[in-house]
Each structure stands twice: as C-alpha cells, then as structure tokens.
Amino acid sequence: MAAAPPTRQQRHRRTHRAATRRRVTGTRGLVAGAFLLPALVLLGALVVYPIGYSVQRSFFDRAGTGFAGLDNYVEIFTDDTILTAVRNNALWVVVAPTLATALGLIFAVLTERVRWGTAFKLVVFMPMAISMLAAGIIFRLVYEQDPDRGVANAVWVGVHDTFAESSGYPKARPLPVHPLKPAGKGAYETKEPVRAGTPALLPLVGVAPAKMPGDARPAAPPRPEPGTVTGTAWLDFTKGGGGTPNTVDAKELGLKGLRIEAVKDGRVVASATAAADGSFTLPASADGALLRLPESNFREPYNGVDWLGPTLVTPAVIGSYIWMWAGFAMVLIAAGLAGLPRELLEAARVDGANEWQVFRRVTVPLLAPVLAVVLVTLMINVLKIFDLVFIIAPGSVQDDANVLALQLYRSSFGTDAHLGVGSAISVLLLLLVIPVMFFNIRRIRRESRR
C-alpha cells in the first residue's frame, strides 16, 4: 500500500525545521569564526608572515636589494664554520635525545618499586625548573679548568690523585750556588759524590711558603753518622730575607716527602724520603754515589681534563642538556609505565621470564608509543638548541661547538651580519623540523584510530 503524500502543514513544518537548522549552523559558524579570528591574526602575524619573509629574504644578498638566487644556500654547505654547525647539529639530534630518553626509561623503571622513588623523581626533574641561561652558567662553572673552582675537574683530579702519586714541589729548583745540577728529564743531582759520615746538603728554592706542606717543620741541620749518609733537604729561603745560601737557617722549612735516590753507574742503589724537618738517612751502600732528586718530585700537578677545549666542548654541552631533560623524559615514561596492564607483566614472569626479559620483550614494546613521543619532542627541541652552547662554550671554541641556531644568531645579528645567510639557515632549520613534525602527526593519527 503506497504511503500518503505529506500534507501542506507537514511540508511547512519540515521547511521551517530545515531553515532553523541552517540559521543555527550558520550562526555557530559565525561565532566560531569570531572566536578564532584573533588567534588566526596572531598566527599569521607571528608565524606565517615571518616564515614567508624569511624564505623571500634568503634569496637576496647582504643588503637585501640584489637577487642572489641560491647563493646563500650554497654558502651554508661550503663555509667551514656553518658546516661545523651542521655536523654538530647532526650529533646533537642523534646523541642527546637518545641518551636522555634512555636515562629517563632507566630512572622510571628502577624507581617504580622503591619507596623513595617519588623523592628521586623530584630531584631528577628539578633541573627542568631552571632556565637554560641559569643552567648554562652553572655548567660553565662545573666545567672550569681550575680544580679549585670546577666541580668536574675537582672530582676527576681527586680520582686521579687517588691512584697516581702527585708531585709535592712542581716549581722547586736549585740555584747555581747550590751543590746540585740538572740531571736531565727534570731531575737534579749533586755535583759531587757523597761520603758516609759527611752530611749532604740538598737546598732548593722556587716553592712559595704558602704552598709548603702544612705539617712541614723547621729544617734540622744534618748530623754526621758513621757508616751512613745523612743530610737535609730544605727550602733555602728565609721569609723577609736575611738567610745565607747553602746554610740551614732557623726559619727555613724542610722539604717533607722529597724523594732522594743514591745512584752509582746509572743504577739506583738506595733511596730515602725526607722527613718533616727535611732530614734523611741512606745506608752505607750510598757511599760514593751521586744523590739524585728524580723528576717525580717536580712534575706539574695534574689539573684534570680540558672540558671546554675544542675536542670535548660539544660532548660537555650535550651532557648539560641531558642533565636538564632526562627528568622530563622520566616523568612522561613513568606516566606511561603506570598505565601498562600489569597482568601482561605478571604473565611473562609466570612463564619463566626474568626481569631483564620482561623489560626488553614486554615493557619496552608496550612503552613504544610513549618513547616515540619523548624522542620526537627532544629531537625537535635540540634542533633549536642555542642558550647552552652560547653560554657554556668560551668564545675561543664557539666555532667548534657551533650549532645551526647559534649560527643563525651570529649570521643575523653578529658584527659581520648577513641577513641572507641567516634567513637561509632559518629555512634549513624549518625544513629539518618538518619531517619530524610530519612523523609525529602521523603517529598521533594512527594512535587515535585505535
């Protein structure tokens, strides 16, 4: 049976509802457009226009009046300084996000089951509250070459001196009037052989009284002892003047710890170490030998590693970045770890998997989306790294630590500014970021379809 055609009243109601719907939809579109307009204006003024202007400016010369074509882009890949920045950026993109993400993963997993895990996470995350400027100043001091000021070298020198004997008197030396002469390789020896029963004098100068050992005592004049070689090694310098060379004066200090060797025919036959008052005693075998002060007494002290030198400056700055951002990675990964289905982890343990196998075959694959988010975020972040390099790297090695963002600043606002090259570098940075952003967008869309 065919349906009855709609009445005139029904057609009128349908037409009225459709018109109302169109009016409401149109009204909502206008309202939405009104609310979006300020944001779109700001987006165009602060993002779209600068990008367009930078692309246009990159094709002009230094003055901006002559068309340069691709010359500015060619200079990016031919100038040695800019090429160093490109290589360093590649190193940053590969190393910094990977290490920060790996450390964040390790911290998140290891602190999951301990009671003080929250406190540890708080401590690791705290550097995120510090600005890049402040972090750069902190690490500029940390990497200071002087062990008395730089924490890194203070620790390094402390470890080194634990396993290697340090020199006590690096600046010590004899005067021409002293009974000592150079013996080669930084050592000194007596001008004449020593005899048993006759005291030997080993005076030195060149040591500041403030650098003397704290427990050094006034030098004791040597006393002859039959059958042995005795003597005194001392600092032949009287504070305030008035001392007599080659004579142990009352205010002069003994060279505590100085090593003395008795050498016959190029062979060491006996050795001794000076006491706090500089006195020493050698056996009868030293009779007729030359006394040698080996170069180990006078080596320059170990001053640690040149962290901010041309070789290590980039790894050092990357280390400071990881110190700041490992906490960020840890927090995001810990949030993802908290949402993992525990029954899968327990099932793996019931099946006989050890903790390492559970971590490698279950935990990491389940955390892959979170790890991808962290890794991509840090990759975008390191592409525009500027503050840490500019502050930490001294001016003498900034070319060695150079990165694209820093070179962009130097090319655009430095003493020899070239806005064409600076704009080309900014376009290059944009092109490097776009693939990472595209990958991130695809991953987010893929996740939303699940």
In short:
By secondary structure, the chain is α+β, with helices and mostly antiparallel strands. Helix content is 51%, strand content 9%.
Summarize the structure in words.
The protein has 450 residues and is of the alpha+beta class. The protein has 2 domains: 71-157 and 306-449, Orthogonal Bundle (MetI-like fold); 180-297, no CATH class. It is built from 13 helices and 8 strands. Strands 1-2-8-5-6 form a 5-stranded antiparallel sheet, with no helix packed on it. The longest helix is centred in the first third of the chain and has 50 residues, at 8-57.
Mean pLDDT over all positions? 86
> Can you write the helix and strand succession as a string?
HHHHHHEEEEEEEEHHHHHHH
**Tally of strands:** 8
Helix content range: 40-55%
Strand line-up across the major sheet: 1-2-8-5-6
Low confidence ranges: none
How many distinct helices? 13
Largest sheet: 5 strands, antiparallel
CATH architecture of the largest domain: Orthogonal Bundle
Relevant CATH superfamily of the largest domain? MetI-like
Question: What is the CA-atom radius of gyration, in angstroms?
Answer: 37 Å
Number of domains: 2
Principal-axis shape: elongated
In CATH, the topology of the largest domain is named MetI-like fold
